[in-house]
Write a structure and sequence with these properties.
The complex is a heterodimer. Chain A has 15 helices and no strands. Chain A is an all-alpha fold. Chain A has one domain: ABC transporter involved in vitamin B12 uptake, BtuC. Chain B is of the alpha/beta class. Chain B has a single domain, classed as Rossmann fold. Chain B has 8 helices and 12 strands. In chain B, strands 6-7-8-3-9-10 form a 6-stranded mixed β-sheet, with helices on both faces. A 4-stranded antiparallel β-sheet of chain B has the order 2-1-4-5, with helices on one face. In chain B, strands 11-12 form a two-stranded antiparallel ribbon. Chain B is globular, with a radius of gyration of 18 Å. The chains are: A mainly alpha, B alpha/beta. Chains A and B meet through helix 10 and helix 11 of A and helix 2 and strand 6 of B.
């Protein structure tokens, strides 16, 4: 119990350090003292502009994006009792991608966000219809999600193939996961925290779901209401993440797994730790993406995968 | 937190159940009363597990009623029901990633403050959890991950979790699976003590080879024609119903002055 509180505190501290480090990095070098001063309203006008109007929103946006992806992954893994589940499995990210790409390719870049939202909702509706009609077996839901995600991938490729040359670059960047336009105001931050709180309120029932539907029901958990709640929460988180950062992969799949490896297995601890770690991972990846080949900025989604894949493979091989 | 189970009775009235459009059981009557230990026997595929799910209220019967403490089972609020009735299904979750103590503590879920199973941070040291860990010899591995345990030890953890729930009515589906002989004997003693000493009641799916029956053992048999025969083991053997239900004969053995029935 005390160990779990300590684990959460360590994750929170680590995440805070990552956020601060990301604020210090950028194509214009600003002394750490000035960065801190700008945050609190001091410093020169230019520095203040860069830190408060450019870096801070981007860092917070990235943090929220990663936290939401990790939350969605944790929820779906608990729901489907399968460590392979992640937001992409539902096809929600794929649907959002198709919507956004359609908007971008038709030159209506301003409509990318609402189009992504509609795409996500459409994919989710399709999944729900198929799953309910098929009796709702977990492996069937997972399979249906994989099929829908594959279909969305094909549609995305089609849109890319047919896209006019000028729109192509923006579309590819969006697909790779990009925080270029992440501007998390208070809304995203409050939303992410609200979602986390809602998930934590369900933590014990999520623990029980891992025992299988029959045992969970025997322990007094309303299995079907829980499943509906988990789907709704994870879909909301996924759409939020996609709106903030495009299609950033890998975080939702792997972060919950890594946090569990470290020893946080009860959802009361796993959920906040995964959210913090996911946020920190995306922030770090984006900071690296901005600074490694500066002034050229890489898509954050590429960097999360480039950092995460070898690390995860190493962990998996290590026993 | 209560250490004593809430004594309740579970009654099935004219129950009919089916699975996949096939009728498994009709006109079944069974009354599990405090202090009684019942065994449920029948061939593979007869519908024993389905009957348990129906009795637990997780699955609807095609006809008939289930009364928990006199009240239809569907009318109980979930948490209140979970304090009175607990089911041990066949193992369906080898994927639990946490530690043994946390796993057993999940049995306390219905007793969370306010009966709200959501309370996330409330997991104080729980005497009931420690007691059940000790009862099933799990103290040395309480901090190990469940997935690292052998099948038999994992089954003991599932039993500890079940007893930690402190529900008066226990429904157990082949609880002796994977258990070594001494653990099987421990489980039998525990269930007897649970029923006699604590005024609980249990319905246990077993195969007769794994459970020596006293002549007065309460027994429910799933009959080939779809009925449920209930009574004392001796009477059901002598009427030939055991042989008809299970396709084998039970013989009478004497051990240290006690009479038991086992497949001959």
């Amino acid at each position: 119990m005390r160990g779990e509180a300590a684990t959460t505190a360590v994750f929170a501290l680590g995440a805070l350090l990552c956020v601060v480090a990301a604020l210090l990095l950028g194509s214009v070098s600003i002394a750490p003292v000035d960065v801190v001063a700008s945050l609190f309203g001091g410093g020169g006008a230019l520095e203040r502009e860069i830190v408060r109007e450019l870096r801070l929103p981007r860092v917070l946006g990235g943090f929220c994006c990663g936290a939401l992806l990790a939350l969605a992954g944790t929820l779906l893994q608990a729901l489907l009792r399968n460590p392979l589940a992640d937001p992409y499995v539902l096809g929600v990210s794929g649907g959002a991608g198709v919507g956004a790409l359609a908007a971008l390719s038709s030159g209506a870049a301003a409509w990318a966000a609402p189009a992504a939202l509609s795409g996500a909702v459409a994919a989710l509706t399709l999944l729900a219809v198929v799953s309910v009609a098929g009796g709702g077996g977990l492996s069937r839901v997972l399979l249906a999600g994989v099929v829908i995600a594959t279909g969305c991938g094909a549609l995305s490729s089609l849109l890319l193939a047919l896209a006019p040359e000028p729109a192509l670059r923006g579309m590819v960047h969006w697909l790779l996961g990009d925080l270029e336009h992440a501007r998390a105001g208070g809304v995203a931050l409050v939303g992410a925290f609200g979602l986390l709180a809602a998930c934590i309120a369900l933590a014990r029932s999520l623990d029980a779901l891992a025992l299988g539907p029959s045992k969970a029901a025997s322990l007094g958990v309303g299995v079907i209401p829980m499943q509906v709640a988990v789907v709704a929460l994870s879909a909301t988180a996924t759409v939020g993440a996609v709106l903030l950062g495009g299609a950033i992969g890998f975080v939702g799949l792997v972060v919950p797994h890594l946090v569990r490896r470290i020893g946080a297995t009860r959802h009361a601890v796993l959920l906040p730790c995964a959210a913090l770690a996911g946020g920190a991972l995306v922030v770090l990846a984006d900071a690296a993406a901005r600074s490694v080949l500066a002034p050229q900025a890489l898509p954050a989604g590429v960097v999360t995968a480039l950092i995460g894949v070898p690390f995860t493979l190493w962990l998996l091989a290590k026993r | 937190m209560t250490a004593q189970p809430i004594a309740s009775d579970l009654r099935a009235v004219d129950l009919a159940i089916g699975r996949g459009g096939r009728a498994l059981l009709r006109q079944a009557n069974l009354h599990l009363q405090p202090g009684q230990l019942w065994l449920l026997c029948g061939p593979n595929g007869a519908g024993k597990s389905t009957l348990l799910e129906v009795l637990a209220g997780h699955r609807a019967p095609t006809a008939g009623e289930r009364l928990l403490a006199g009240r239809p089972i569907g009318e109980w609020p979930r948490v209140q029901r979970a304090r009175r009735l607990a089911l041990l299904p066949q193992d369906e979750a080898p994927g639990y990633e946490g530690r043994v103590r946390e796993f057993v503590a999940l049995g306390r879920l219905p007793w969370s403050p306010g009966g709200w199973p959501g309370a996330p941070w409330h997991d104080p040291p729980d005497a009931v959890v420690e007691q059940e860990l000790a009862a099933f010899g799990l103290e040395p591995m309480a901090d190990a991950r469940l997935g690292e345990l052998s099948g038999g030890l994992r089954q003991r953890a599932r039993l500890a979790q079940l007893f930690a729930q402190r529900a008066g009515v226990l429904l157990l589906d082949e609880p002796g699976t994977y258990l070594d002989l001494s653990s099987q004997a421990l489980l039998a003693r525990r269930l007897q003590a649970w029923c006699e000493g604590r005024a609980g009641t249990a319905l246990v799916v077993v195969h007769p080879s794994g459970w020596p029956m006293a002549p007065d053992q309460r027994l429910a048999l799933m009959m080939p024609e779809g009925g449920l025969a209930t009574g004392q083991a001796k009477a059901l053997v002598e009427s030939g119903q055991v042989e008809r239900a299970l396709g084998c004969r039970l013989g009478r053995f004497r051990h240290e002055g006690r009479e038991v029935w086992l497949p001959a």
